[in-house]
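Chapter review: from sequence to fold.
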Amino acid sequence: MNNRRVIVKVPASTANLGPGFDTLGMALSLYSWVELSAAERTEFRLYGEQMDGLPKDKSNLIYKVAQLVFNEAGVELPELSISMYSEIPLARGLGSSASAIVGALVAANALIGGPLSDDKLFQMATELEGHPDNVGASIFGGIVVSAWDGKQADYVKIAPHRKLETLVAIPAFQLATEKARHALPKQVSMSDAVFNVGRSSLLVAALASGELNLIGQAMRDRLHQPYRAALIPGMSAILDQATGHGALGAALSGAGPTLIAFVSADCPDKDGLERFLLQTLKQEGIEAETLWLPPCGHGPQITVEDAAKERAVPLMDRIKGEITA
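The token string follows.
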């Protein structure tokens, strides 16, 4: 039997960044952990409220994704011990499903000695998730600019500027990505398409060059945010007014309902910006929590142990000093 035990720590992600629909993503310092080892029979240890209701049999996403890796590598490991904890809230627009997919891919690959390249894992993750923005950020870290034609995903990684910080406001309700996508039109006008190409291009250039003063204009969007605004009361006001309260720019994080503000480290009134986000949502009857989440510059962190030699310490005991949320 394979005697390895693998723990993988995967960053959360924010996608779209305003105009870069399904193409731009950034890793954030909020994490999920996946532990894998071979076993006599498949067993699960799922910790925390984020895991409530998830299956504890071979229909579990982590198990199924791990088997895809083994099949790709020509390895048989039908029985697994799987542990997972996530501080990434579910269905909030912070890449919880992408982090689970990436965690399973990376952990399974490490468990069998790493035969698959990061790019191969990226291709598999993109196909599973249906778009490359979240999974690219979680695999490679930093800011990831990506494109996918249904067969091949390509990407370029940009290191986040040292002064770039992010503030998220996480409403106390879930919003399924499928529901958020149903709000989008089937067609858009040429002028809106051109508007977004320009803004997305400008945003990538601003992030790559460090011209943070351009972010506010560059994060404007006509493809998805106007259509999703009705699903998140207070969103339009936040996107329109956040720069007046000290933000560099603001956007819906992924499919929402989380809203994200890009902020310079030398912003003079971060507390005021935080109050603005919370009060704007509260006026609409929405309770929310805010978190300052530094961009995460790296992808998954992998720990590989010899399970036959190392005493099996429960996952939660292993990571208790790392949990932030």
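Two observations follow directly from the output. The chain has a mean pLDDT of 93. The two ends are 36 Å apart (CA to CA).
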